[in-house]
Amino acid sequence: GQQLNQSPQSMFIQEGEDVSMNCTSSSIFNTWLWYKQEPGEGPVLLIALYKAGELTSNGRLTAQFGITRKDSFLNISASIPSDVGIYFCAGPNRDDKIIFGKGTRLHILP
Amino acid sequence: NAGVTQTPKFRVLKTGQSMTLLCAQDMNHEYMYWYRQDPGMGLRLIHYSVGEGTTAKGEVPDGYNVSRLKKQNFLLGLESAAPSQTSVYFCASSYSRLAGRAYEQYFGPGTRLTVT
Known about the structure:
The structure holds 2 protein chains of 2 kinds.
Chain A: E1 5-7, E2 10-14, E3 19-24, E4 32-37, E5 44-49, E6 55-58, E7 61-65, E8 71-76, E9 85-92, E10 98-100, E11 104-109
Parallel strand pairs in A: 2-11
Antiparallel strand pairs in A: 1-3, 3-8, 4-5, 4-9, 6-7, 7-8, 9-10, 9-11
Chain B: E1 4-7, E2 10-13, E3 19-25, E4 31-38, E5 42-49, E6 56-57, E7 65-67, E8 73-78, E9 87-94, E10 106-107, E11 111-115
Parallel strand pairs in B: 2-11
Antiparallel strand pairs in B: 1-3, 3-8, 4-5, 4-9, 5-6, 7-8, 9-10, 9-11
């Protein structure tokens, strides 16, 4: 079935650095969603993308809908300690059900 | 607005016991969902509902039942719990397809269930 592959699985960065992560699929998606999950909490929607090529920002976060419609990217600028968490990409599959990637776990070193 | 709430937050069951997880939302959303999250597996859809009185199966429905008697509530039942159902369960809700934002889901804080 359709899958979303996220990379990297885990990242260790210094506070203040920029972060880049991506999500890819072998099939086309018409919508891409990015969520953040903090320990002990439910996922929180960060950004929703609806058009190929679309670039959308939410504060220090910027996400892009890839031109091929098979990938999406999330960037975080000037990371701070509260950015720690797991970042999930998601999108509707052929059955119109949302599927999730396995996440990128972000660690920030002081 | 409380958003999406879930009760209980934690529960330990013995194999074969039954329980019901309750989800409530106060955003007047049409759609509601139940997911489970296991380490390294991401979120997987168990059941969902597109409106009061409707339910449908998701990716991993076996061993679970659901009911949506009121628009704001979505119940997840385990009739005979098994250790394989040890997981964190999340409820979510969203607007309908007609409202154009059906894919933007709002999640509750989760229920951590352990089956021994």
